[in-house]
Specification:
The protein contains two helices and five strands, in the order αβββββα. The protein is of the alpha+beta class.
Length: 110
């Protein structure tokens, strides 16, 4: 009987660890993404998952589609879920500098 209790305790610990390390962070990321999408308005500059920067022209909440202007007179339709973040040139430049610095640090010297 004690073997069953031990197996149950181990199984509970494994499932708890899986939830804490895998499921909970994904739930938080999903909630953060939903909060971002709900906060978008017409006129916001955004970045898509594909790296395209544009301005929101129209949001159709019922269909989940947004129209984004990526150049003068060039409009594309995107899934609203494909909008990654609000465009912040200072933050993107800072992240690019960090990425370049870490790449230089990783390169072996001859």
């Amino acid at each position: 009987m004690s073997e069953f209790v031990l197996v149950f305790v181990i199984l509970a610990l494994v499932l708890g660890g899986y939830w804490a390390l895998i499921i909970f962070p994904k739930q938080r990321a999903f909630q953060h993404k939903q909060k971002l999408v709900r906060s978008l308005h017409v006129g916001d500059e955004i970045v898509t998952y594909g790296g395209i920067v544009g301005k929101i022209i129209d949001i159709d909440v019922d269909q989940g589609i947004s129209q984004v202007e990526i150049a003068d007179g060039v409009r594309i339709k995107l899934l609203t879920a494909a909008l990654q973040q609000v465009y912040d040139p200072d933050e993107l430049a800072y992240n690019a500098k960090l990425g370049l610095k870490s790449r230089r640090d990783e390169q072996p010297t001859a």
